[in-house]
Amino acid sequence: MSAIDTLLNPKHRRACTYKAVKPFLYKPMPAIQLKYFKAPSTEEREAYAQETDLICSQCGNKVAVLGRTNTITNEVDCDLCAIEDYKYFEGFKTIKAAEAHRRRMFDTGYLLTEVLIDDYIAYYELLDHEDISVDEQQILTEISTDLQNMTPRPKKIELQNTLDQAKIERHYKRLIGQYIEWPRKRLSA
Ligand SMILES: [Zn+2]
Q1: Residue 19 gets which letter from DSSP?
Q2: Per-domain residue ranges for the chain?
Q3: For ligand 1, a single-atom ion, which residues have Cβ within 5 Å?
Q4: In the Cβ-directed half-sphere of 20, how many Cα atoms lie within 13 Å?
């Protein structure tokens, strides 16, 4: 969320107004535990950014790690500027606390994909995640994106602010149970 988004969207509730987030305004909120997704390391992201030659629209430095892209103007910001903004607009007191909370925004999305993968594994009685082909993985990711797009923004923010990961997973299981009916045969395996 950029500064302009916040100004244009006064209904947006700041993270700091959520009771569950209050203890984590200074210290980082615990990370979402992911089983399958490995976020690229800072080194990997830096190496990737070196190839793209991007300049941050805010600080004017070369973007070592991409923070966000404005899809309308195509401008990019480095992660440091994006986190600095996030800290300010969401009401965090330290960069580390803002960074951890912002990370949860992405990871609650990945978590839905993981719950979906587990549902798929259980349905087709697969051995494990390794049993899923690249094509299947691709389709599962698309289904996860559709489910996320169906989720209203306030609900997404509420999930991001839910400390108990098991509670988030239960919500996702209900969502999948409600909307997903796996075909008799596996997806283009
Ligand atoms: Zn920057």
Answers
A1: G
A2: 3-179
A3: 56, 58-59, 78, 81
A4: 12
Confidence class for position 5, pLDDT limits 50, 70, 90: low
User: Does residue 111 contact residue 172 with C-beta atoms inside 8 Å?
Assistant: yes
At 4, which amino acid appears? Answer: I
Q: Cα–Cα distance between 67 and 175 in angstroms, integer?
A: 30
**Which residue, 100, 56, 96, 60, is CA-closest to 79?**
56
Q: Cα 72–147–108 angle (5° rounding)?
A: 80
pTM, entire model: 0.85
Ligand 1 center to residue 168 CA distance, Å?
Answer: 32
Q: What angle do CA 112, 118, 124 make, to 5 degrees?
A: 135
Identify whether the C-beta of residue 162 lies closer than 8 Å to the C-beta of residue 172: no
Q: How far is the CA of 77 from the centre of ligand 1 (A)?
A: 5
